């Protein structure tokens, strides 16, 4: 009787369900209790109760276990006989009053169970066929199926599957239900604030009223869910096929496809929108995230959206601050206002009117862009014909092939190649410009540009007012008129450059004929081959090689000078230069305060005072006139120097015939050094046949092996020794202050002596 | 100023304002051992010993001026002045204390009669 009446009643007033069920349960319980014989006691175990067993558990029985109750069993468990376990209850007319915390394996076929409102936390394996229980809170159901199930879902229930026209009506304040699957004509009304439900799958003609914060695995096929305005952040796995949702805010969608007509609220996240989605986002919506929008998407998108891919005839109105993975093929976006969009790729006939602050991964082929300021592009290639009136501070990865852009100031380019006809503004950054790039000269061009490479017939004309440009490489007939403070990686081949102040060069190669009038503080990585510079002060050079005829100014830094470099002497040149290596026939006139890494092979230097040397090797025949306080890393092999006072030596080895001055510091003297050493020297180690004439006040780390030092002499005129072996080419006379009496023991080639400001000099 | 050419066997007396170094390049020309004409009276001379020897006895260093080519007495006194580290005064014939002359040094030699002093070092070295 109840199974027939309750559905009709629900259509009129669903909220009466609980009241009706409660009344029904009270009536049935009274009938069963009157007829049940005998009463069931506590803690009984039944294998099977069948055939009209009219058990009446009228005492305070508890924790009974039933294997199977079937066929018109009219058990009445009206007392608090909690925690009973039933294997299976089946067949019609079972009119059971379930107490609290029971566990049922299966309830099938027309079970008219009515659980009183005080029952709790029941677990059902399966309820099938017209089950019309009046369930209490916190029940767990494996499966509910078949029509006519008219269930009032309380709070916090868990359902495995609800299928076939389940007309559940959650009339009370239920909450946090979990559904595995709801399918086919489920007309659940969850219209109270029963929040945080979780659905595995909802499909086929659902007419749900979804509350707040639900999670859906899949919604498909004509789902006519109507979400109320107060609903919260729902999560949907997939919505497909003509879904006409009225979605609440902050929802998350896996996939939306096919003919959606959705009103997107704010801050939604979509995996994919495809095929004819004619979403209409309201003006107040914001910050949606889309994985992919494809094919005829005509969304009216709100601000701050994020798209993975937009393709095929998308005609969007892009608001501000959107992020796109890829836009391709005939996208006719008409962005009217927004700024700071991010695009992964724009390709093929993209005709955008983009606002400022956009970021593009790649723009290719006939992109006719109206570029605003502060855009960032990965690549522009193939006939990208951006027109003027574009913004400033754009960043481009690569521009190639017939790019005819009108760039304003502050752009950054990775590579510009082939026939790029640029009108360069100031503060641009270029990776590479090559092949017939014919920049258009204009009074406003190219202040503070940065170029990776300029090569081949670049006829860039940078105005005189241009500022500190940076070039990676300039090669092949580049004849720019460069501004001040430029930096060059490499200049090679017939570059005819007028270099202003504070330039930086990586390499200058081959007949670079820089013009005079340059400013100081240039930095060069390498200058090679016939470089004929007139360099001012403050330059830094990595390498100068082969016939570099330099007029060196002061405070230059050199990495290496090699091969027949003949520095031009000039009175004002080269104070405080730093050299990494000087090798082979370097004949420089070096003034004071220089630093040398290595001097090797016949370097004929005029060394000034306070120089620092790493190593002097092989027949370095320095000329007299050296300065004070030089520092040497090592002197080896036949070095014949005339060193003044205050020098520091790392090691002197092999026949170095040196006449040392006062206060020198030696870390080691090795092998047959026969010097005339003055006072107050400090030695680290002296070993092997060193024949010293040592004055007073010396300090030695170690003296070893046959050192015939003649110590104990007083200060005064000392004599240079002559090596007992080897072939010295020069002798050095150490003379103290005041009167000295000396002679030379052998014919000298420079035997014309003259007075100097301090004492005695010899002719060259 | 124009330079003063200095040869071996010549003693040089110099007053320097500070300690310094002068560099002498050994001649690469083929030469005989050096000679120096000594006038009668005091002459300031140096030594030109072999480069393997740093000192020589005075009578050996001055042997070429012992007797002139005409058979007359050559030198008769040798003085190492106090400007040198070692000071002495030696007279010819005193065989009890013949001093040694150091390479690089200078000494006063008194010639009874003019003669030519011959050294021992030659170039190339």
Description:
The complex is a heterodimer of chains A (764) and B (125). Chain A contains two helices and 42 strands. Chain A is mainly beta. Among the domains of chain A are: 1-152, no CATH class; 153-246, no CATH class; 409-519, no CATH class. Chain A has a 38-stranded parallel beta sheet that branches. Chain A has a two-stranded antiparallel ribbon with strand order 41-42. In chain A, a hairpin with a 4-residue loop joins strand 41 and strand 42. In chain B, strands 5-10-7-8 form a four-stranded antiparallel beta sheet, with no helix packed on it. The N and C termini of chain B lie far apart (30 Å). Chain B is globular. In chain B, a hairpin with a 7-residue loop joins strand 7 and strand 8 (88-91). By secondary structure, chain B is mainly beta. At the A-B interface, strand 39, strand 40, strand 41 and strand 42 of A face strand 1, strand 2, strand 3 and strand 5 of B.
Oligomer: heterodimer
Averaged pLDDT of chain B: 87
Q: Round the Cα radius of gyration of chain B to an integer and report it.
A: 15 Å
The number of helical elements of chain A comes to 2
Widest β-sheet, arrangement of strands of chain B: 5-10-7-8
- Radius of gyration of chain A over all CA atoms, rounded: 48 Å
Main pleated-sheet profile of chain A: 38 strands, parallel
Low-confidence stretches of chain A: 1-64, 67-84, 89-102, 105-122, 125-140, 142-157, 160-177, 180-197, 200-214, 217-235, 240-252, 256-268, ...
Helices and strands of chain B, in order, run as: EEEEEEHEEEEE
- The helix content of chain A, as a percent range, equals under 10%
Q: Strand pairing plus helix content of chain A: what structural class? A: mainly beta
Task: Report the portion of residues of chain A in β strands.
Answer: 25-35%
- State the end-to-end CA separation of chain A: 135 Å
Largest interface: A-B, 56 and 53 residues
């Amino acid at each position: 009787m109840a199974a027939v009446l309750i559905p009709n009643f629900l259509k009129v007033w669903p909220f009466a369900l609980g009241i009706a069920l409660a009344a029904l349960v009270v009536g049935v319980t009274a009938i069963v209790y009157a007829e049940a014989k005998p009463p069931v006691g506590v803690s009984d175990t039944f294998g099977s109760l069948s055939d009209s067993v009219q058990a009446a558990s009228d005492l305070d029985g508890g924790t009974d276990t039933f294997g199977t109750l079937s066929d018109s069993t009219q058990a009445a468990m009206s007392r608090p006989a909690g925690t009973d376990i039933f294997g299976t209850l089946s067949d019609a007319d079972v009119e059971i009053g379930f107490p609290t915390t029971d566990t049922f394996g299966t309830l099938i076929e027309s079970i008219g169970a009515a659980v009183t409102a005080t029952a709790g936390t029941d677990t059902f394996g399966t309820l099938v066929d017209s089950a019309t229980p009046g369930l209490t809170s916190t029940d767990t159901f494996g499966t509910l199926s078949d029509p006519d199930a008219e269930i009032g879902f309380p709070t916090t229930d868990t359902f495995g599957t609800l299928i076939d026209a389940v007309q559940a009506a959650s009339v009370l304040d239920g909450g946090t239900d979990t559904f595995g699957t709801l399918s086919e004509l489920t007309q659940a009304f969850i219209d109270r604030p029963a929040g945080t439900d979780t659905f595995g799958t909802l499909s086929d003609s659902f007419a749900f009223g979804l509350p707040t914060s639900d999670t859906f695995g899949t919604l498909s096929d004509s789902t006519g869910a109507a979400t109320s305005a107060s609903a919260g952040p729902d999560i949907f796995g997939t919505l497909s096929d003509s879904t006409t949702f009225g979605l609440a805010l902050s929802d998350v969608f896996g996939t939306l496809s096919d003919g959606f007509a959705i009103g997107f609220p704010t801050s939604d996240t979509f995996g994919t929108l495809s095929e004819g989605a004619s979403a209409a986002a309201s003006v107040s919506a914001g910050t949606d995230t889309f994985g992919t929008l494809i094919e005829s998407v005509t969304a009216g998108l709100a601000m701050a959206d994020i798209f993975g891919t937009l393709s095929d005839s998308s005609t969007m109105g892009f608001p501000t601050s959107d992020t796109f993975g890829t836009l391709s093929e005939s996208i006719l976006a008409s962005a009217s206002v927004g700024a700071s969009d991010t695009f992964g790729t724009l390709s093929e006939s993209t005709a955008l009117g983009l606002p400022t602050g956009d970021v593009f991964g790649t723009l290719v082929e006939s992109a006719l862009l109206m570029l605003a300021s502060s855009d960032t592009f990965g690549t522009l290639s193939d006939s990208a014909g951006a027109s003027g009136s574009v913004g400033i501070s754009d960043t481009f990865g690569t521009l190639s092939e017939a790019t005819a852009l009108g760039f304003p100031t502050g752009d950054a380019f990775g590579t510009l190649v082939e026939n790029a006809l640029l009108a360069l503004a100031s503060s641009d950054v270029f990776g590479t410009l090559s092949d017939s790039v014919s920049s258009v000269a204009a009074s406003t061009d190219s202040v503070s540009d940065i170029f990776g490479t300029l090569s081949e017939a670049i006829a860039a004309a940078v105005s005189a007012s241009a500022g500190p440009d940076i070039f990676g490489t300039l090669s092949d007939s580049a004849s720019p008129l460069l501004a001040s403070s430029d930096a060059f990686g490499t200049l090679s081949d017939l570059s005819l450059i007028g270099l202003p102040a504070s330039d930086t060069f990586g390499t200058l190669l081959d007949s670079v004929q820089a013009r005079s009038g340059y400013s100081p503080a240039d930095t060069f990585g390498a200058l090679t081959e016939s470089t004929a510079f007139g360099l001012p002060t403050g330059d830094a050079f990595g390498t100068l090689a082969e016939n570099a005829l330099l007029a060196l100014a002061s405070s230059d830094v050199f990495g290496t000078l090699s091969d027949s470099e003949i520095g031009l002497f000039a009175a004002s040149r080269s104070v405080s230069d730093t050299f990494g290596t000087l090798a082979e026939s370097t004949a420089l006139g070096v003034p004071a305060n220089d630093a040398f890494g290595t001097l090797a092979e016949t370097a004929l230097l005029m060394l000034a005072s306070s120089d620092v040397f790493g190593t002097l090797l092989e027949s370095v025949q320095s000329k007299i006139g050296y300065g004070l306080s030089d520092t040497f890393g090592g002197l080896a092999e036949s070095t014949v120097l005339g060193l003044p006072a205050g020098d520091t030596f790392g090691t002197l080895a092999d026949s170095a015939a040196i006449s040392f001055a006062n206060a020198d510091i030696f870390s080691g003297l090795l092998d047959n050094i026969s010097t005339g050493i003055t006072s107050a020297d400090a030695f680290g180690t002296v070993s092997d046949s060193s024949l010293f004439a040592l004055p007073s006040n010396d300090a030695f780390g170690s003296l070893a092996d046959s050192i015939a030092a003649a110590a104990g002499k007083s200060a005064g005129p000392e004599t240079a020794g002559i090596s007992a072996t080897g072939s010295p080419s020069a002798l050095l006379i150490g003379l103290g202050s005041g009167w000295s009496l000396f002679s030379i023991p052998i014919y000298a080639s420079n035997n014309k002596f003259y007075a100097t400001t301090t004492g005695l000099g010899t002719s060259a | 100023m124009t330079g003063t050419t200095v040869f071996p066997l010549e003693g040089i007396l110099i007053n320097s304002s500070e300690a310094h170094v002068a560099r002498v390049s050994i001649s690469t020309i083929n030469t005989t051992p050096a000679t120096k004409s000594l006038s009668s009276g005091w002459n300031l001379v140096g030594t030109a010993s072999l480069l393997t020897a740093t000192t020589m006895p005075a009578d050996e260093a001055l042997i070429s001026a012992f007797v002139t080519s005409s058979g007359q007495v050559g030198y008769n006194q040798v003085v190492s002045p106090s400007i040198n580290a070692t000071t002495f005064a030696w007279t010819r014939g005193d065989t009890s204390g013949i001093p040694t002359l150091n390479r690089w040094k200078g000494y006063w030699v008194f010639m009874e009669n003019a003669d030519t002093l011959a050294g021992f070092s030659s170039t190339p070295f």
